[in-house]
Design a protein that fits this description.
It contains four helices and no strands. The protein is mainly alpha-helical.
Length: 87
């Protein structure tokens, strides 16, 4: 197995680490994904970026990650849907 070493600006490394972490990856894994996809596509393969979420969805994601304001469990799907439609 080969080792790839590159020199990059400290700030760029920190920003990349934070971005990849927010996507559920570490930087070495993101680099491997990029290299494999580049070979498969015979070029730069894709654009990975965050898409803005509506405020209500951002709030729901935050609540699920912090386990706050959760309702349930439900006995069946109909009860879960009915709970989502309540307001």
């Amino acid at each position: 197995m080969a080792t790839l070493q590159i020199r990059i600006d400290d700030t760029l490394k920190q920003q990349a680490d934070a971005l990849f972490f927010s996507l559920g990856l570490d930087t070495p894994t993101a680099v491997r994904i990029f290299l494999n996809a580049s070979i498969e596509n015979d070029g730069i393969p894709f654009s990975v970026q965050h898409r803005p979420l509506p405020d209500s969805l951002q709030e729901a994601v935050h609540h699920s990650r912090t386990r706050k304001n959760l309702i349930g469990p439900f006995d069946n799907a109909a009860d879960a849907v009915a709970s989502m439609l309540e307001d």
